[in-house]
TrEMBL record:
Residue ranges annotated for the GED domain, each copy included: 1-36
Protein name as it appears in the record: GED domain-containing protein
């Protein structure tokens, strides 16, 4: 940590220098040739220039002491390489070994730089999360976005240790569940949680299932929060759907289909389809109990009316690409059959439960349709769309 951690200007200055060095180190590893390891190459030149300035830039932070050592080693290796300028076998082998050693040291330099950046970014983010009302909204959202991007780069044990030690997950969950916080910040916190699940599902899934995050996402009632819920369902699968059902959140999710905002309804439909795919018997029963089929029939009726008026229905279904375009422009077309297919091919139900729910869907379609013709059309779609 810096001697004066409150000095943003000093941290920013060091960060800019280290970002340049990180790029130079990466290039040196990516292209480990004799020419790229010469002292006049851009990558090595940038690294050696910092080594000469290490007293003023690196000595202030004990976390960067190892980086100073690596830079000193690099300088020594480059000097050895330049001294072995002969054409004999021994000189060639010395240069080859030195080049490989330089590449390894460059890798260590990059790791040390990234570790420093991770520590500083998490520390800054933690300060913002602990006192969100004292932090500019855009600044906190930016910090969250940067952290999400870093986590999305893939698993890193050192980064995971920092995340666990900081207990940042608890703060993210707290903000997601706090209606007094900015909605923009809450949504971005939710996306960070989703990124952490992808980062290491084994470590963070338990915290999702045991906490109040699911309720926070549903109660936020925005298309972004429900999109995150969809992502979590895809990652955690049936156990998360079990929690959604046991927490009594399904009625609220079904009610989102009544919202005026089209994009929100589309995301809610995606969430319902994911629940249908991974949900066990209790979850599917809860959805049907909330009148899901009636809502889907009504949505499909509106879509079908628009498509018929536009003369698009048969034309758009001539091939797979047409079907894709149809769903993009009319997301509720055939939604009853799509839901039935999710149950049929999904992971949550036993075979006899699939058959029973299919019959239940057909029964409810007959009950809620406005005419025999409408019922016949939707029933045909369900029977045609589901596998035998």
């Amino acid at each position: 940590m810096m001697e004066d951690p409150s000095s943003k200007a000093e941290i920013t200055r060091v960060l800019k220098v280290l970002e340049v060095l990180k790029q130079a180190s990466h290039e040196l590893q990516t292209h480990p040739s004799l020419d790229s390891a010469e002292s006049n190459s851009p990558a090595v030149k940038a690294l050696l220039e910092l080594e000469t300035e290490s007293d003023t830039i690196l000595s202030k932070d004990p976390h960067l002491s190892t980086l100073s050592q690596h830079l000193a080693t690099l300088k020594s290796l480059v000097a050895t390489l330049e001294q072995s300028c002969g054409h004999g076998l021994r000189s060639f082998l010395t240069r080859r070994v030195s080049t490989q050693a330089i590449s390894r040291v460059a890798g260590s330099i990059e790791m040390e730089i990234q570790a420093w950046i991770d520590r500083e970014s998490i520390e800054s983010l933690m300060k913002g999360l602990k006192e969100p009302s004292q932090t500019e909204e855009d600044e906190l959202v930016s910090l969250l976005s940067q952290f999400e991007e870093r986590v999305s780069q893939g698993f890193n044990r050192e980064l995971q240790d920092l995340v666990l030690k900081s207990k940042i997950f608890c703060l993210l969950e707290k903000i997601v569940c706090d209606p007094s916080c900015s909605k923009k910040v809450r949504e971005q916190c939710a996306f960070v949680v989703s990124a952490l699940i992808k980062f290491n599902k084994d470590v963070f899934v338990g915290q999702v299932l045991m906490g109040r995050l699911i309720h926070g996402l549903v109660s936020m009632a925005s298309w972004k929060s429900i999109k995150v819920l969809c992502l979590l369902i895809k990652s955690i699968k049936s156990p998360l759907v079990d929690e959604i059902e046991s927490n009594g959140e399904i009625p609220k999710i079904i009610s989102f289909l009544d919202y005026k905002d089209l994009h929100f309804r589309v995301v809610a439909m995606d969430c319902i389809l994911e629940i249908g795919y991974f949900g066990r018997k209790e979850a599917i029963e809860a959805m049907l109990k909330e009148g899901l089929i009636k809502k889907l029939v009504e949505l499909q009726r509106l879509e079908r009316g628009d498509l018929i008026n536009m003369g698009m229905l048969d034309h758009e279904r001539e091939n797979g690409e047409g079907e894709k375009r149809l769903l993009e422009s009319h997301p509720f077309a055939g939604c009853v059959a799509r839901f039935a297919v999710q149950l049929e091919v999904g992971e949550g139900l036993r075979q006899r439960e699939r058959r029973a729910f299919k019959q239940e869907i057909l029964k409810r379609v007959r009950e809620v349709c406005a005419s025999d013709a409408e019922a016949a059309t939707i029933i045909a779609e369900v029977l045609w769309g589901s596998s035998p």
